Amino acid sequence: MSKKDLTEEDIKLRFITPAINNAEWRNEHIRMEYYFTDGRVIFQGKVHARQTGKKADYLLFHAANKPIAIVEAKDNSKPLGGGMQQAMEYAQILDIPFAYSSNGDGFLEHDFLTGKETELSLEQFPTPDALYQRLIKTKQLDKEALKIVEQPFYSDQYTYEPRYYQRIAVERTVEAIAKGKDRVLIVMATGTGKTITAFQIIHRLKASGAKKKILYLADRNILIDQTMVQDFKPFKKIMTKIQGAAIDSAYEVHMALYHQLVSNEEGVEDPFRQVQPTFFDLIIVDECHRGSAKDDSAWRKVLEYFNTATQIGMTATPKAENGANNLDYFGEPVFTYSLLQGIQDGFLAPYRVTNSYISIDLQGFKPNEDEKDLLGRDIVQRLYERKDIGRDIAFTKRREIVAKRITKMLKQIGRMTKTIVFCTDIEEAEAMRSLLVNLNADLCARDSRYVMRITGDDNVGKKQLDNFIDVDQAYPTIVTTSELLATGVDCKTCGLIVIDKEIGSMTEFKQIIGRGTRLRTDKGKWHLEILDFRNATAKFKDPKFDGDPEPPQGKNGKPYTIPDEPSSVVSEPHVKYLVEGEKIAITTEIVSVLGEDGKTMRTESITDFTRKQIRKRYATLNDFVKNWTEAERKKVIVDELKDYSVLVDAVREKNPALAHADIFDVICHVAYDQPPMARRERANNVKKRNYFAKYEGKAREVLEALLDKYADYGILNLEDSDILDTDPFNKIGKPQRIVKLFGGIDKYEQALIELENEIYKTA
């Protein structure tokens, strides 16, 4: 067999791997078939799947968790640089300086440090030390800085290997500080692991001796408490939470709330002044888009007092409004990882948006002359618009409609789905709680915590916050709030966010959406549902947000007219009128999901979308049939279509007539308008042709049983490697014995391929 006839795996085994090993790369330096993303979650209806994650053929490390080179392999029929573009793409994603492509004849090197490419023989592949010296030379680090940069990541049996973007954030931050930068900004989407990233930064700076006293600042108790018992747990013996006014100088890592360090009483000294301005040499500011970066904020005093300390800001929102511009204070971010990228990589949950438009929100309300509200108060004569509802005026009928729509959605997606309902204020949150209790009385009778209000003024509700965020606790299930849950609450299983309040700022919107962007597939959470009564999700199309949705379409296909959003959130009024409201109803609903490009929102039907995507891959029916017939395993075709966001089971769900059709027939019907055939019909056609006549005894019995399995469950079940362990095959014998009936594994697999061909013979 010539070299050009070898598979890619053979080329790796015989040529590429030995060449890398001969260049002093030990096994612990090499990761093969290294997946660095999980693969984007796609969902249609109630069907979910993952696309294929990004994978490097070889990832080479000069130290633990510190990759330095990537190698993409091709078979020998391809040119030497056949894998270079993919290697370069992955190297840029992974922030790696050296990319290589090989077909087994040698290597093509791309050096991102110089921009040059060089052809190398198999014997010329560089050693780990050679690559590292080339990298360090360009960084121009002195001895002390090099000591900081070379400090390893923290690792023990309880810690996870950092995701690629967390590693990049840590490396860039540590290097920037080693070079003398004293203000650093890191932008990471909610749910992507800012606190574990902060932990690794602190560990490396502490372990290297660069920093000794650390202050970690947040603005919510729950943020501090979560961090201490989870990501910062290895600091347990040297860490303390600042309580009251005392700062215990014996500890090295201090966890604190902004407001605990600042006095609100005139003439009382700020607690942080009890230590010298040089006491802390590293401060990490969690969620620095809020008060910590605001010029006129008292919290800013903490940062200015300890101005000799290195200060790191971490946020999901790189710019904040009303003077709180964290870019001005911390500078441009050293690293950014967006919500969009997190969804594309499969680390964050994609979302489906239901925009629900209510008549009175669209039309407005103007009271009749001398009209009084339900409490007997004269209603001020003016036009009340959507921005006023819930703040200046409330309609009991509208509240009921919202509560009923929430309940209806929960009955569709699962009534035990953790839900946050964002209301205009505490009064609206309480009214919504009461309505939801009555609409879900059966579940409230089972546990009174099924619906609860959690707001800043209610200690009973706040005490249940830990249970709400606990992934193993079912109750509370539905929580109504105004602002308390908008930021910082790490509720990984929150599957429904309801917006019934005006959201004036992008910062607030991104934080609210961030409450539901975490994935917990082990708990059944694959995506986030957003039920929006205020058109807040129009912000998805804002350039400041990651996505760029198309405008929602009305029933006639034209853009739907929606009220303008308020220029700013209206201040709390002195009087809120309460009116029953007449002829209030939901006039239009538009459901959209994040498109396959990860940027736009699409509203087309699953069937239309599937047709378009299949034809992207297979332009004609003949193209598809040819590929299907030639595939030794049909699962390869099905998995490939997932990368085009095609989910056959979702099409079946929307088309009951296709419930018993073969996957092949579903695809041909939806994409190419071919009449579908039921699996049982295909199986009967095989029997009519007397295909089994050439087999006898137990072998024939096995094939007949396989055909019955196909008729019941489909072609993928037939290809399942464990099928011979199931009934009725386990009554015939163990898999090894069954295979022997056909003369060995190769002949059994050939018989299976022939059976599949016979199934599709009429196609």
Automatic annotation (TrEMBL):
Assigned EC number: 3.1.21.3
Domain Helicase ATP-binding, first and last residues per copy: 175-336
PROSITE patterns found in the cross-reference section: HELICASE_ATP_BIND_1
SMART domains: DEXDc
Keyword Hydrolase: yes
Record key words, sorted: Hydrolase
Organism: Segatella buccae ATCC 33574
Pfam families, alphabetized: EcoEI_R_C, ResIII
Example of a GO MF term: ATP binding
Positions of the UniProt region annotated as Disordered: 541-568
InterPro entries for this protein: EcoEI_R_C_dom, Helicase/UvrB_N, Helicase_ATP-bd, Helicase_Restrict-Modif_Enz, P-loop_NTPase
GO BP term, pick one: DNA modification
Gene3D superfamilies: 3.90.1570.30, P-loop containing nucleotide triphosphate hydrolases
EC supergroup of this enzyme: hydrolase
NCBIfam families the record matches: restrict_EcoAI
Record-given protein name: Putative type-I restriction enzyme
PANTHER family to which the protein is assigned, alphabetical: ATP-DEPENDENT HELICASE IRC3-RELATED, TYPE I RESTRICTION ENZYME ECOKI R PROTEIN
One GO CC term, this protein: cytosol
Keyword Hydrolase applies: yes
